[in-house]
Amino acid sequence: MSKKQLIMEKAVELFSKQGFEATSVQQITDYCGISKGAFYLSFKSKDELILALIDYYMQQFSTELDYTVRNETKENTLYQFFYKTFHAFSNHVEFARLLMKEQTYSLNEALLDKMRYYDQLTNETILTIIEKVYGDAINDIKFDLILAIKGLLNSYSSLLLFNKVAFDEELAAESLVEKTNILATYMSTPFITEEQGKMFQHFSVEDMSKEQLLSLMSSIADDIEDSLEKDSLVLLKEQIDHTSFNLAIIKGLIENIRANKQCKWIAYLLEKHFNLL
Where is the HTH tetR-type domain (predicted)? Predict the structure, then answer.
């Protein structure tokens, strides 16, 4: 495990116990068994660490959903979307609770900007899903359907966040597929106008420059120990500068790194760069 990854994982444990405000950089470094200097080599401040944690968890979640939307059958896409959303909440429930609890933290505006960004990305994913599943049949009500799906997700996810009860992720996903089908079939009075619906459309992850992409790939490669993944990332870096492989080989190299949790976001960015999305 890289030092940066160690700091992030240990910081989440401390933040969950004490909150953002009450946890100092000194406490984090003591808990990690590292010096303050080592901390500042990875993060400029505690605020930057918190934003990095949000990026880390949300990028993992967003890329998993994107991959699901593009690779599942039409019949199974909606179920997998709900199931993987609940599964992600379940795996990271402590951090989700922490974000909801720390509304008054001094980083609030920057934190809100991050959450708005990923909320917009989720809107785009849901729009892609319902257009894939229902086609033109939901054209008039698709923006209302996005809000309805998010409302259902928030309500059911609150059972994970605030209630100490057993939560059957598979049954919850099946239940929400059934409810979404009913809404898509019988909802006939749209509230969101076409003009208002533009906020759900034409959103994409901002393009990285070639230099930014190469820099990110270099920093990730330094932290990877698996030889196949490291070699695949090195070869992909070479293709950024000069594409000599065909797209099938590039796609295979991206698949080699996708399973590594540190590489999920870069795999998505590379697919975008090579127009494989």
Answer: 1-61
